[in-house]
């Protein structure tokens, strides 16, 4: 049991992010379980790669947007023209909307939210990666956190991966899915790198319940890593 949680205020309230990647952003956070978000430590391992690969991007495709903090990050970048966020959970979309309001982005015309799924299912609830990315200007940053079918969703974006300059961040939840994602990205000439949880997560773990939980980044060979 984390004794520190006993002394942290419970309940979700608007709070500023104190440091790190999202510094200066305001989010609805419950410090009893989201203190790492406030300190800029949540998924800290990915932040350097996002900063590097997002340089010059003109659009962002957020698959599994959740509360929307990464979409908000991209909306605050000066060169970003379009953001498409995919989030099937109504409660998460409500928090996303509240976070947009906190950051003055409630009515931003660059943002489209799809309240469904990415993949090869029945439209309109399901939309392929190619459909979601249609019209997005390159370079496009694609983030995927969808808890399982990552490789299958990549398989619905063959035109996007082949025809656009994509920078990809995928949270992987099994070794098999990770291997399939790498295979698909390599087929289209992308370089890849695995980002593992930091060693200090032993002392400061995140709220993760499965053994294989890490990240995969991909980028075109002509884009320097």
Task: Describe the protein in words.
The protein is of the alpha/beta class. It is built from eight helices and eleven strands. The strands form three sheets. The protein has a seven-stranded mixed β-sheet with strand order 5-4-3-8-9-11-10, sandwiched between helices. Strands 1-2 form a two-stranded antiparallel ribbon. The chain has a two-stranded parallel ribbon with strand order 6-7. The radius of gyration is 17 Å and the shape is globular. The model has no long low-confidence stretch (mean pLDDT 92).
What are the defining features of this structure?
225 residues, single chain, two-stranded antiparallel sheet, 8 helices, seven-stranded mixed β-sheet, Rossmann fold, globular, alpha/beta, 23% strand
What's the quick description here?
The protein is of the alpha/beta class.
User: Radius of gyration, Cα only, in angstroms?
Assistant: 17 Å
Structural class: alpha/beta
Which shape, going by the Cα principal axes? globular
CATH-defined topology of the largest domain: Rossmann fold
Number of continuous helical runs? 8
The strand order across the widest sheet is: 5-4-3-8-9-11-10
Measured distance between first and last alpha carbons: 40 Å
Determine the fraction of residues in helical runs and give it as a percent range: 25-40%
What number is the mean pLDDT?
92
Strands, count: 11
Q: Can you tell me the number of structural domains?
A: 2
Residue stretches low in confidence (pLDDT < 50, at least 5 long) are none
CATH architecture of the largest domain: 3-Layer(aba) Sandwich
